[in-house]
Write a structure and sequence with these properties.
Blueprint (H helix, E strand, L loop, with lengths): L1 H11 L23 E6 L5 H19 L2 E6 L3 H9 L5 E3 L2 H9 L4 E9 L6 E2 L1 E6 L14 E3 L6 H13 L9 E3 L4 H9 L5 E5 H9 L8 E6 L3 E2 L3 E4 L4 H12 L13 E6 L6 H10 L3
Helix pairs in contact: 3-4, 5-9
Length: about 290
Amino acid sequence: MMTITVVTFIMGCTSPMSNFTSNALNPVSLQDKQYILRVGVLPTQNKEVQSLQIKPIHKYLEKTLGMQIDFLVAKNYKDMVDLIVAEKVDISYVGAVSYLEALERGAKVKPLVAPIDKHTGRPWYRACIIVKTSSGINTLQDLKGKRIAFVNKSSTSGYLMPVAHFKKLGIDLRDFKQVLFPGTYAKTEAALEDGIVDAIATNIPSYLKRQKIGKLTPQNSKVLWESVPVPHSPIIMSQKLPPQLITRLKAAFIKAPSNIEDIVGADVDGYTLVEDSDYQPIRKLRNEFLKN
């Protein structure tokens, strides 16, 4: 059932963007000089790396939209949801689980766009479990009695997807010797590199990025398990934004240069429109495995 739903998601999010003409980016009467767009960002990397990732899209959006934009990196996953619920941000880079948590707490938000993964060519990616090649761990059952790190309990690929799969196999968190929550993908991956844990929950895009800097390499690490396709992290928006601004935001992201890096750490090849229904597989998984 999960696979069928995800396939529907993939097809639904790859429709042509021909409706976004250059007129969508023309100035409109929004009193832009007085309007400051507040953008919240989920922390996935260390502050220095994420600050560098933010600069290109910050510059691009300010130039394209013709208004001041303030970026705010949340302290953690809970802080990000708190900011959304308190309406202290207008649009937010979040994970699917954080989006659903914000909705459950009464936030009036909806998806704006989601990144297209450079490796899949679609607005989805895969969660994974990574171990050291020298660990002697060859199956998920081998992880019993071992130390494992999950990113955060509000992380989609860094917690929900692997934990749901563990439960299908009859593996409980109590079966592990130690469970850590470092808080970001970078810190979680570093925990495996430094030998603090025996396995980590992360995602394929983040793992591939880690390989680029010579940390977790195909020689010293391996993928123990991959999930089914996961709907990519949405950029969500307040439903209180002016309709004209929403149209311009959609056009700005759809037309964003392909060399602008996604600021939550994924390798992206542009953005595509998404709807709330695209995240129904994640909603169903949470209800089935984490709320019972």
